[in-house]
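WP5 quarterly update. Target: Deoxyribose-phosphate aldolase. Source organism: Actinomadura craniellae. Length: 313 aa.
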Amino acid sequence: MSTETSPDIAASAASLRRFLHGLPGVDQVGAEERAARLATRSIKTTAKAEAIDLAIGMVDLTTLEGADTPGKVRAMCAKAVHPDPTDPEVPRVAAVCVYPDLVAEAVRAVEGSGVGVAAVATAFPSGRAPLEAKLADTRAAVAAGATEIDMVIDRGAFLAGDYMKVWDEIVATREACGDAHLKVIFETGELATYDNVRRASWLAMHAGADFIKTSTGKLSPAATLPVTLVMLEAVRDFRARTGRRVGVKPAGGIRTTKDAIKYLVLVNETAGPDWLDPAAFRLGASSLLNDLLMQRQKLRTGVYAGPDYFTLD
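Structure tokens (predicted):
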């Protein structure tokens, strides 16, 4: 496989296409079998307690609905900072994720807490808008205080083989982000094949992505273990070739503690322990946090609280 530098890879549409199609194909059966095998790993009680706290600290607590209000965002942010007000030892989440027009509200609500504020810019969730509109959306979110931008690629362009258009949009969005981190969303359910997921991963990483992300959470299938495995292999191999660590974020459909721990095992066994860090791995979820809190309380007290014990998201 080519080891060209990013500018060389993007020198022309032809060279970018050659690079992406020169990537090794994904063994579909092997990827699915490995993901299924890792999902059966058992976790002992002490390790489970540590895994739950780690997972809580990796959550991007999310509200992305047309009916979102400033009050709903403030309530979510309060939960992000203090997930369980009765237990100050519960770690804060990694970030909250909102629409760009609600960034300023979220920034005020988490000020001084260490919780990041992510904005879904670039015509989320479709990615279908003129580039200037996407960049204006990004710049406005950053100006309002967003520390992370979650952009969606133009899947139509990618599937049509117009990789240069996707590349150019990622590069331009990375520039518009300034100091904010850029997460690039593939909507893997629409990419259809593991080979496409691998190509999208390498394209985004060479174009400057700080994270690669499976899904918007608006379509099914969203995150899956085999797809995340392919992405983790890509970031592992990318660092081996370039020295740069890129994060991974599965999002959508991760609802239970059991699900979250399966992903943590996958991370450790595929990319390695360097990725067991909120700076390199996130869980995009809106309902996962409550289950993590319930399981945490059960381990701590022996009593399993009902789902109405914690605030609903």
